[in-house]
Amino acid sequence: MKRIAVLLSGRGSNFEAIAESVRAGRIPDAELTIVVSNRESAGGIEKARQRGIEAVVIPSKGKQREEYDREVVALLKEKKIDLVCLAGFMRLLSPYFVQEFRHRILNIHPALLPSFPGLEAQKQALEWGVKFSGCTVHLVDEHLDAGPIICQAVVPVEDGDTEETLAARILREEHRIYAEAINIVLSGRYRIEGRRVLRTD
Ligand code: GAR
Q1: Ligand 1, from 8, 13, 115, 141: best to mutate by most atoms within 8 Å of Cβ?
Q2: Residue 169's pLDDT is what?
Q3: Main-chain dihedrals φ then ψ at residue 54, nearest 5 degrees
């Protein structure tokens, strides 16, 4: 049984999608062990508790990056976590964190990376005028929204789109490909060549 931790800072819809995929057996032989948030106000914390999943707030305010990450890593190790899923966790991880969970941290981003990293990716896409955007699940390294790509999904941008309508269309795909990416990584049926993640099944 693989043990998954979700780290989040906000609403937690990706957390819910992962939790639902685990519950329904779409992510087999896994349990969602713990949710960690750096923000007390994160809606995802309440959602986790409602599902009976342990949810812990470790406030990041006023802490140095690595000092904070050491607290989180200690908790994740205590819980024997196999895979860390960032789901709207709005913090860059320190090299310490990345090394402790090398190739065992995933992130989801609401754009086709390497386009539009950082904040407000959907707004960036709209303003740039791209006709297609989407979402990306990738392995996490020390850099922002970087690291080898596991899965992407393409979403068309429509003329009438606002930031909200585009974000909602992308979000549906996020919920789908996060579970797919988790399955690839937990199964171990992939290899990394340079930046490329190649399936071995
Ligand atoms: C998601 O759209 C996720 O892709 C994005 O934050 C949102 C969190 O929503 N993450 C990033 O922008 C990371 N750079 P959620 O709390 O409902 O899952």
Answers
A1: 13
A2: 98
A3: -60, 130
Q: Is the dihedral angle over the CA atoms 186, 188, 194, 196 positive or is it negative?
A: negative
Whether 94 and 125 share a structural domain: no
pTM of the model: 0.97
Domain co-membership, 111 together with 75:
no
Query: What is the distance in A from the centroid of ligand 1 to the CA of 174?
Result: 9
Name which of 74, 92, 77, 91 is nearest 3 in CA terms. 77
User: Residue 140: which pLDDT band, with cuts at 50, 70 and 90?
Assistant: very high
What CATH code is carried by the domain that includes residue 67?
3.40.50.170
109 catalytic residue (yes or no):
yes
169 and 91 in a common domain:
no
Alpha carbon nearest to ligand 1 atom 10, residue: 88
Measured from the Cα of 174, ligand 1's closest atom is 4
